[in-house]
Amino acid sequence: MCCDLKRRFLLLYATQKGQAKAIAEEIWQQAGAHGLEADMHCISEMDKYNLETEKDPVVIVISTTGTGDPPDTARKFVKKIQDTTLPPDHFAHLQYGLLGLGDSEYTFFCNGGKTVDQRLQELGAQHFYDTGLADDCVGLELVVDPWIDGLWLALKEAFKLQKERESMSSDVDGVSSSLSAAPQIVHELNLSSEVQNLKLEDKELRSSDVLTQKLVDINLVASTGDTEPSLVRSVPPLSQSALNIPALPPEYIEVQFQDTHGENPHLSSLISEGTTFEVPVTKAVQLTSKDAIKTALLLELDIADTDFDYQPGDAFCVICPNNVNEVEELLQILGLSEKGECFVCLKVKQGTKKKGATHPQHIPERSTLKFILTWCLEIRAIPKKAFLRALVECTSEVGEKRRLQELCSRQGASDYTRFIRESNVCLLDLLHAFPSCRPSLNLLIEHLPKLQARSYSVSSSNLYQPGKLRFVFSIVEFPACPTRPVSQKGVCTGWLAELVAPLLHPNKNTPDTEGGSPSIEKISIFARPNNTFHLPADPSVPFVMVGPGTGISPFIGFLQHRQKLREEHTDWEFGETWLFFGCRHQDRDYLFKDELRCFLENGTLTHLKVCFSRDSSTAEVAPPKYVQDVIRLYAKEVARVLLTERGYFYVCGDKKHMADGVSDAVVDILSTEMEVDKLEAMKILAMLREAKRYLQDVWT
Fold this sequence. Notes:
Layout: E1 8-14, H1 19-31, E2 37-42, E3 58-62, H2 75-81, E4 95-102, H3 111-122, E5 126-127, E6 132-135, H4 141-167, H5 172-181, H6 203-209, E7 214-216, E8 243-245, E9 253-257, E10 276-286, E11 296-302, E12 315-319, H7 324-333, E13 343-348, E14 367-368, H8 369-376, H9 385-392, H10 398-408, H11 413-421, H12 427-433, H13 441-447, E15 454-457, E16 468-474, E17 477-478, E18 488-489, H14 491-499, H15 501-504, E19 522-528, E20 543-546, H16 553-568, E21 577-583, H17 593-601, E22 607-612, H18 627-633, H19 635-644, E23 648-654, H20 655-674, H21 678-690, E24 694-699
Parallel strand pairs: 1-2, 1-3, 3-4, 4-5, 4-6, 20-21, 20-23, 21-22, 23-24
Antiparallel strand pairs: 7-8, 9-13, 10-11, 10-19, 11-16, 12-15, 12-19, 13-14, 17-18
Pfam families: FAD_binding_1, Flavodoxin_1, NAD_binding_1
EC number: 1.16.1.8
GO molecular function: [methionine synthase] reductase (NADPH) activity; flavin adenine dinucleotide binding; FMN binding
């Protein structure tokens, strides 16, 4: 290796959407100020490092994807270390620290990091620094920042121990004794997803922090009349504090404008996850009444002329653009309206200090500026602190500059959470709030993440409706707020709703139609198979479905499939089926009401239990409002299906406000019916999850 052996450490990252890589780059950047060299690689680049012979400390930053899986870039690594033939002392020489990224809204929080951490421990590796688990639900930075702060002291202690061991290398027994007696370096911060457990008072760590943070002198004091903080204004003590702000991220992209001749790439070139299909939208139905709180739409796609295949329970992704008006507004603010149709060439800046700087993979080699802002960059993304730090340098007004410094500073962490993260502030919101901020195009390309395709559950069966694919969604609405005077619709749901408006309202005057028929629009999709959320392989096994609101979507596909199987195989035995459905109002948003009645009448659905959370009742005993309450009324039946008949339990819908409540209800049922305490019931539920008999398809 080119780095000084005594001061080098190996830095590995495993990323799905770029978060872990960005954090690893921050560690790499800070390392130099601490007299250290980070030898950084993606964990998939196994030809560039070798843990079997690694003598220096190893730092791993790893995210979690799907339902608790390691990211795609870590699959080969995980498969390699999970080889059951490896001896328990395979990594006995290895010292490491691991930072896991996850979201506690999901059941298997930080499971990617936990999987690697546990396996390294099983193979004899030792921690030189406590594992950190950062929670994207409350803000990764709440754990990431102090974890990085403490890393430098832990590394220096690890190097100190390493030096002591090497000095005793002439006596093998002495070395062995030293290794067994050496204390594990434990960081004083007990880092976990429980943010309230964080302790930020470690003065030694704070002093080392100054090495990599710029101390900002305070020269502004908030007006005494401003007593409430906001996105653009702070109050004491923050407004009067000296600030520790992050180091300025090095720029690494150079943008060159070319002519306006040529064609933009096909959308399929933006996707690396699989084959992309461009399919027509042949039907659109509004499932809710006009006065419903949320508008739910059903769309039908024609996949007959494609190789697209799916099972009920699968999901698929829709490639969607940013809102055209927002793109135009962004171009105008940046002073690039006249450059929108110009083709853009990106190059890595010569001499950039960014480690491993490359052409962003999600930006085509040749495309127009408008194409990049429309199809490639997530312009609605919540800006990270590193982006805010870069925007400081693009802001001319002194007060605005100071406020951006506060929002990216250690001292302004709570303001960042409140006014940026929790308020879903995006780049356009910032540019309106701080009008003297005029970032360059290269800065946007460097800091805005890839525009992700949106995932939807399939709401049909290819057996029941060959050549058709249906899905259901609610149009996401973001109401106006102090930082955004105009309401917004979701990026994808808003675009889809506008796209199919002629199908929903065929009588309205629409351009490009012949004979009164609306033109057929096409969308680009690709498969995202679900390996577990499928019907039981044995049709005689009973199952329970819980799907309030649009969470009912995959279960319509389940029931369609089951009905067709019953028609084709009259001699088969079919298990009973339960559906617990809930919505706000029976007459406004009872989705698939007629279809469910038909499934009941023909015997496909054995039991249908519904509830309506906003309807008033004149009954002496008020009916249950939520699906978890209804489930409790059928405790014995649920326990019988799960325990006696070894059935399946499916949950689809909102994670925080429904799925957690349902799992709590199931725990209570198991506890009561099995006459065990709650802890034992939770273990039983965990075993059901492990056996893939309690399955969730949830979102936040």
